Amino acid sequence: MTTLSVIVTSPTGLLIAFGFIVAILSMSVVIRAVRSDEMRTVGFDFVTPESKFLWDSLRIVDFPVLVPHRPGWAGREDKEACIRRDHNLDPHVEIVFLEIEVDDPSNFYQRLMIEVVQEHAALHHQGDQRCVSIAHAIAAIALELSRESKPPGLHFGWSDMHPAGRELELPGLRRGQHPIEGA
Q: In this predicted structure, what is the pLDDT of residue 33?
């Protein structure tokens, strides 16, 4: 009752608080709009000279398909066969699996450490380290690969995890399982 009576008799405190809220929200929107087109990746480093050579060869490929891959979930060979079958991809289309490790997310700018390994004749595996955001790393790789040839295809699949498990990061919880059964 006391709070309501103070608000009714002198609403200046409420107006000042409302002004602060509007100022904070408007500055947040302006800052977000200004920084929205900044590139967070400032460059690439390579683990070995062979990785650099394979990276340069990927840059001139006409249409590589980039596939984010989480190690330990499914085999790359099975995933490649499924992608080729589901999307009717020619056997000559390069599929590049991206295995990205997140580093310190407080670093706003990243310089990706890239390791490119050719496992089979047309299967490349690319491990990226020192990234602060998986989405930004994938975007930077796609942009870099599109500088000298056609833009690469990006393949994103649905997670096999149950939505509750994905949000809570419970790796044993698969779609269709009850939360108690997956734990």
A: 87
